[in-house]
Amino acid sequence: MHATLIAGVAALLAFSMVYPFLPGRYDELAVPLSTMAQVFGVVGLALVPGGVLWLIVPRYGFPLALLATAIGTGVALVLALFATLSVGNAFGVLTLAIWISVLVRLAPRLKDLRRAGDRRFSPAPFYLVLLPTLAFGSQLALAVPATRWSRDRAMANAGELIADIEQYRTRHGSYPPALQAQHADYVPDVIGVEQYFYAPRGESYNLAFEQPRFLLDRFGTREWVVYNPRGEHRLYSHAARLLSSPDLGGSGQGWYASGETGHVYWRYFWFD
Hints:
Layout: H1 2-18, H2 30-43, H3 48-56, H4 61-86, H5 89-116, H6 124-157, H7 159-172, E1 197-201, E2 204-211, E3 222-227, H8 239-244, E4 257-260, E5 266-271
Antiparallel strand pairs: 1-2, 2-3, 3-5, 4-5
Helix pairs in contact: 1-2, 1-6, 2-4, 2-6, 3-4, 3-6, 4-5
């Protein structure tokens, strides 16, 4: 039963991580939930040494359980911080409330463990060792293929929009001045990609979307993928810089690195 439960939770964590990269309608909670699952896979590794020691020396189960509870509280606080930063205060408070409810349910089990000593088998150390390890390994294995696949899908799904923009130019002699509307109509069909952003530029234009990324894939980096039919890609980190210097070039736009995507006229840009 415990092996099945561990496998199920590990699979749920892995699915949460990859969820923003899957095809489907945009879900604004997809990236925050993925980030929190990945954060658990990193900071949760602090639980592993205590779990291993518990397996080796089971007679120290009770003090090691207390240590794991304290470390788990620290992990929960980190998760609540990420929940607050990615969604808002309410989500952070909800995360803490869930952990408090877990602590309430754990209290009787800790008392039972103290009374039983080493005479009773406890599956807890297997959870402490396996869940963070599997979560950490999942994000290492999934980061590159999931990111590449979802980026390629969003770029491919922009084909209809690009074709319609070019048809507009053929009919009217110039590219549309704006495409801001209540309904976007053209969707990336990637759960973690909200929409395409269009901005005319002289005799050309830029079409961009923000690509979700894995936590450990250049930590703190935000990636934007940009299409420009003339190779005059522009994407800026701050609107204020556009007002003061409207024609910033190169890294003056705010990105620290860029590169080819493997698709003609598309480039990626990394912002910190």
